Amino acid sequence: MNQSVTSDDSNPSQASASTNNSVSTAGAGKNTASKKRFRISLFWKILGWFWLSMVIIITINLFVGYINGGKIHYRPLPPPLENELRKITNKTQNLFDGFRRINRSPRKRQWEIYLLDEQGQEFSNKTYPELLADLHSRVRRHKQPLVAFQRKQAFFGGSLIQIKEKNYWLYSRQRAPLINRHLVESFFRDIAKSILFSIFILSFPVSFLLSWLITGPIRRLQQTTRKMRHDLSNREDLEKLMRRRDEFGELATDFDNLANHLSHTLDSQKQLLSDVSHELRSPLARLKIALGMAENQATSATQDNLSRIKLECDRMNDMLSNLLTLSKLEAQEMSSEKETFDLCQIFQTVIEDGRFEAEQSNTEIQVDIPALCQFHGVKDPLISGIENILRNAIRYAGDNGLIKCSLHQQNDSITLSISDNGPGVPQAQLDKIFDAFYRPDLDRARNSGGVGLGLSIAKRSFALNGGVISAENLEPSGLKVTVKFST
């Protein structure tokens, strides 16, 4: 069974039992953190894109200049061209062996071939481009067939045939596309080892600077928002950003205006809460005086009604006290001077005070507290926080209930916990019970008179002492509230 618990007191509602699952006061923030996916910083994204874009643009410009530079590129014959050259050579040799002239080849000539002798004279006295002459010279020096390409023209060959006992070297023209695989390979072989590597290294500082200029203000704005989360007046970094004369400066100005509006709204809300609480105290005091006079003159028929009125006045008085305490905690008006004291003694004192209330419902309180635990913090808020948690546990443990109070110190941390065997809290609402005025049950626990302030006050009281509060359901039933302090 789950216990529907309000911040200070509420009527428990029945729900199915839940497994143990600790929920911190961060609430939904912790659930969101547990679902975080792999994150890449915006800085590295921008750096990567800038760097890659610069390298690609410079590489393309170099490649365009490379293919338009008029340089002749030589490469060994790849296997497809070797096979094609072998076919051309065999067919040409067969033609001459059959006493056919090469210039009387079939109408649909498959290849445009050239036959050059040792002096570079073409067999049929055809003219040929300078590219072929350079290729012929290189083939004779290397004594192996090659391919040569320049811009849109290419020749390959260098196989030796004999015509009338005279040696000739056979070549074929191949129309090369503007960009081909051989040209790309040649570019990266000639350029990447020298210029391109230097460009890759030299472009990194430029990309790094551009990325830093963009993400730097964003990072400072993020740091400022984190500081303002705890103190809206902490805007030193924001004021520096506001001096910029660009979009980041305008964004910082808009953010500062929003923070001012939010600060003013929160201050007005806190002031209103404090003023209303104070103003209600006077008519409530007069009502109690009138109630006391009425009780002296009451008959047995009206005594029950007056008792009910007195109960409601006491509840209203408690609510106003809680509101004032919450207002002071939020405004940090409560004494913040820290001192060193024995936390075990304070905890034990609060438990002893709570035993009187627990005895009314025959509730047992078990204690597991060491003899001494030195703590440096603000005493009064700490006492108030422990009292609210213990009272909440006593209220929902019910008749003949069981409450366990423990305190343990380990290394640089102190853990304080209070658990009960009540119905517990619906699992989906565990992260909200520390919010002010939150009431998980649908009828808002009117019978208990609570308004959902007790655990909210406890949360803020422990926060002033660096404590983090969380809650979890117990098996088979019950609720455990844990506070962890870093010493």
TrEMBL record:
Transferase in keyword set: yes
Reactions catalysed according to its record: ATP + protein L-histidine = ADP + protein N-phospho-L-histidine
GO cellular component: plasma membrane
Subcellular location: Cell membrane
Domain HAMP per the UniProt entry, residue ranges: 212-267
Membrane-spanning ranges: 46-67, 195-214
Name recorded for this polypeptide: histidine kinase
Organism the protein comes from: Aliikangiella coralliicola
